Amino acid sequence: MKLDEIDNKVNAVDLKVKILSIDKREINTSRGESVYYYGLIGDETSVMAYTAWEFPGVIKAGDVVEIKYARVKEYNGRLRVYMDSKTEIILKPGENLDVKNTYKEVKLQDISTKTPFVSVSGMISAITSREYNKEGRKFLIYSGFIEDDTSRVRISSFGRPLENGKIYSIKGARVAEFNKQMELSVGDKTDIEESPQDINFERNFKIFDIKNPAGSINIDVFVITFGLKSGIIKRCEICNKPLSTGVCADHPNEKTVLDIFTYFTVDDGTGIMQAIAGKNAILPLIGIEEDEIPKYANEIYDKMNEKLYGHAFKMNVDFVINEDGLSLRVNSISELDETGLKNDMVEGV
Ligand SMILES: [Zn+2]
């Protein structure tokens, strides 16, 4: 029998399945201590939970087994396979079985490397493609963003087109951590389907609400400290590394570019965060063009400090992973009427 043929009318089932997980639990009953096993089994058609009162010690997760004389019962609204002393569990050494993939559907703010494959839905933006050669064949790699009502994260796809502005349901995307943020990738086994739906892309949150790295979030904040060493830095034009000596160790003959580096603390009444911002966020705020940076070298710190410190802003930020939690990378800053935010903060207290 296949797992998708099982219903709660069948009594004794014979199955050939892969053991996907085995967990053990000890319980105290009126008859003393006893042990049971539980986990997931799967075949080509489905994945199902099981409970076993006896389980051969030689069997490990990943093994293919034949299960004879098991029972099926509904538990919490879902079917479950039960194995007791009458059940035979026979190891099939060397055999393999393809298991139907089932992935948890998550919001983009909840993806984590603890769940390496997930299903997500969202709109694709800022996609670019480039050619890639693998074993003499040419592929296109697409990279850009996917966004839903909770976050915007980087996504890349090897050979499978993703189009800007389209909303997809993506099942079995791989999760990775890159550059202190979460990232998704689409591979051969990922299902992609266009799935039009209404999504609110505003993503206005309070600092307290954000528990995981998340991209392109709008927060209303006061800047409560401004870092003393904020100012102008040099970066390598090739690798973008900040250069304390003025020369990149990896690209000593390449050009350098000037950037702004600022660090400050923000408070929105629900939480306090460390933030960093570069020229894209800061220059429009202080009204200086990029090619004017050298001209303002001596006064830029004072300009930034005066403009930022103690004032209220709407910021679009990425919450990124830091040694001790999360911090902010600021994408853009716009001025905010301070009275509104002050009232919010008083209510928050
Ligand atoms: Zn470099």
Rg (CA only) = 27 Å
* Bound molecule kinds, no repeats: zinc ion
Shape descriptor: elongated
- Number of domains in the coordinates? 3
Count all strands and give the number.
18
* CATH class value of the largest domain: Mainly Beta
- What is the helix content? under 10%
Record the strand order, biggest sheet.
1-2-3-5-4
Profile the largest sheet: 5 strands, mixed, barrel
What name goes with the CATH superfamily of the largest domain?
Nucleic acid-binding proteins
In the CATH hierarchy, the third-tier topology of the largest domain is known as OB fold (Dihydrolipoamide Acetyltransferase, E2P)
Structural commentary:
The protein is mainly beta and 349 residues long. It folds into three domains: 3-91, OB fold (Dihydrolipoamide Acetyltransferase, E2P); 108-194, Nucleic acid-binding proteins (OB fold (Dihydrolipoamide Acetyltransferase, E2P)), CATH 2.40.50; 207-348, OB fold (Dihydrolipoamide Acetyltransferase, E2P) (Beta Barrel). It is built from three helices and 18 strands. It has helices spanning 279-286, 300-308, 338-348; strands at residues 13-29, 32-42, 47-52, 64-75, 78-83, 88-91, 117-134, 137-147, 152-158, 167-178, 181-186, 191-194, 214-226, 231-236, 256-267, 272-277, 312-322, 325-335. The strands form three sheets. A five-stranded mixed barrel has the order 1-2-3-5-4. It has a five-stranded mixed barrel with strand order 7-8-9-11-10. A five-stranded mixed barrel has the order 13-15-16-18-17. Strand 8 and strand 9 (152-158) form a beta hairpin. It is elongated and about 85 Å long. The mean pLDDT is 91. It binds zinc ion (ZN). Zinc ion (ZN) is lined by residues 236, 238-239, 241, 248, 250-251. Residues 236, 238-239, 241, 248, 250-251 line the site of zinc ion.
